């Protein structure tokens, strides 16, 4: 589905997957069902990656660095997966937007829990900061992908980590 949902034909998809079209239809009654299954799979992988990075340490500086690096790494490993998830021509489809919102909420809420625990900010304020940090990772990593390798992954993720850390570290930890 490199050409987008509407640009992909089931014949092409079957050929790329090295299966016959009838086999493809046995598992996925429609192109939309196939897309939703791929979306679910990629979002589950990305969720696991993000939560793994977030929970990899209790040091918040290292935590922010790990999350930013993991996001950039996800895109570097499979930019087609990222495009399928975040650049779909189906983002207004209710099932697609619901799945994307579930991912965004899960990731941002996990960040917000850490912020709320550490800073004692009210839940709603911590959620806003969580969404902001998650959005920073997503938007900057998407831009980095457009640089076609002209900006090193480590340099890019480090720049965004430092920007995020300098901002979030201004909310001091409270015991």
UniProtKB/TrEMBL annotation:
<dbReference type="InterPro" id="IPR009057">
    <property type="entry name" value="Homeodomain-like_sf"/>
</dbReference>
<keyword id="KW-0238">DNA-binding</keyword>
<dbReference type="Pfam" id="PF00440">
    <property type="entry name" value="TetR_N"/>
</dbReference>
<dbReference type="InterPro" id="IPR036271">
    <property type="entry name" value="Tet_transcr_reg_TetR-rel_C_sf"/>
</dbReference>
<protein>
    <submittedName>
        <fullName>TetR family transcriptional regulator</fullName>
    </submittedName>
</protein>
<feature type="DNA-binding region" description="H-T-H motif">
    <location>
        <begin position="9"/>
        <end position="28"/>
    </location>
</feature>
<feature type="domain" description="HTH tetR-type">
    <location>
        <begin position="1"/>
        <end position="46"/>
    </location>
</feature>
<dbReference type="InterPro" id="IPR050109">
    <property type="entry name" value="HTH-type_TetR-like_transc_reg"/>
</dbReference>
<dbReference type="InterPro" id="IPR001647">
    <property type="entry name" value="HTH_TetR"/>
</dbReference>
